[in-house]
């Protein structure tokens, strides 16, 4: 497993990226090293929204802001799993533009809210 070789631990959420809880975030309080939240690269903004939500959970659980870092997979990979399978190292992951990522996440949230409020959005999507 590449993470062991990197001296890192990886987690994923079995219910999907948007369903992590404060209780799960508290697990990271004990550590002292950096926490790298890897954003999925997608046009919808879902990946950005998920890592920003995870950062908020970590902060609410008491994790020091200085430990939390955003990363994105090297091109042309769309997520961490794909990059790792291709043999990329942790050093290959780069910092995303956090301002653009936040804007994309906000747009994603607004779009999802609009779809929930609209009774006919499924017909337009399907």
Describe this structure in words.
The chain has 126 residues and is mostly helical. It has one domain. It is 45% helix and 6% strand. It is built from six helices and two strands. The chain has helices at 2-6, 22-26, 46-61, 80-85, 98-117, 121-125, and strands spanning 35-38, 68-71. It has a two-stranded parallel ribbon. Helix 3 links the parallel strand 1 (35-38) and strand 2 (68-71). Helix 3 packs across helix 5. The protein is globular and about 35 Å long.
Give the DSSP E fraction (strand runs of 2 or more residues).
Answer: 5-15%
The number of domains: 1
User: Given the structure, what is the number of helices?
Assistant: 6
Give start-end ranges of low-pLDDT stretches: 116-126
Shape: globular
Distance between the termini: 39 Å
Structural class based on helices, strands and sheet pairing: mainly alpha
Q: What is the mean pLDDT?
A: 79
Helix amount: 40-55%
Helix and strand sequence: HHEHEHHH
The biggest beta sheet is recorded as: 2 strands, parallel
- Count of beta strands: 2
Spatial ordering of strands, largest sheet: 1-2
Radius of gyration: 16 Å
What are the salient characteristics of this protein?
mainly alpha, 6 helices, 2 strands, globular
Write the layout of secondary structure elements.
Blueprint: H1 2-6, H2 22-26, E1 35-38, H3 46-61, E2 68-71, H4 80-85, H5 98-117, H6 121-125
């Amino acid at each position: 497993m590449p993470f062991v070789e990197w001296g890192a631990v990886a987690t994923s959420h079995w219910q999907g990226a948007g369903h992590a809880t404060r209780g799960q975030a508290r697990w990271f309080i004990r550590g002292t090293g950096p926490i790298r939240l890897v954003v999925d690269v997608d046009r919808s903004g879902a990946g950005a929204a998920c890592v920003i939500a995870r950062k908020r959970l970590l902060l609410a659980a008491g994790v020091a802001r200085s430990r939390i870092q955003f990363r994105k997979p090297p091109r042309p990979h769309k997520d961490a799993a794909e990059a790792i399978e291709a043999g990329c190292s942790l050093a290959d992951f780069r910092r995303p533009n956090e301002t653009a990522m936040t804007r994309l996440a906000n747009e994603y949230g607004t779009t999802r809210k609009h779809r929930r409020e609209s009774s006919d959005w499924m017909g337009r999507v399907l």
